[in-house]
Amino acid sequence: MNRRKDTKMRESDRENRLSGRWTGIGFVIVLLGALLALFLLMGGA
Fold first, then answer.
1. Which uninterrupted H or E stretch holds 1?
2. How far is Cα 30 from Cα 28, in angstroms, rounded to an integer?
3. How do residues 17-29 score in pLDDT, each as one tens digit?
């Protein structure tokens, strides 16, 4: 019983770490996209 709980916790921890890394990458992509849009607007104006 205790062992199964431990493996389940480890699995959820790994999933959380993966999702955290992906949200970080997504945030960087959004930030770069915003900077690029701002740069294009400045260049256009």
1. none
2. 5
3. 888 877 888 999 9
Residue type, 44: G
Q: Where is 27: in which H helix or E strand? A: helix 2-44
Percent of the chain with pLDDT over 70: 96
Angle in degrees, CA 21, 27, 31, rounded to 5: 150
Distance CA 8, CA 14 (A): 10
Question: Residue 4 — φ and ψ, nearest 5°?
Answer: -65, -40
List the chain residues with pLDDT less than 50. Answer: none
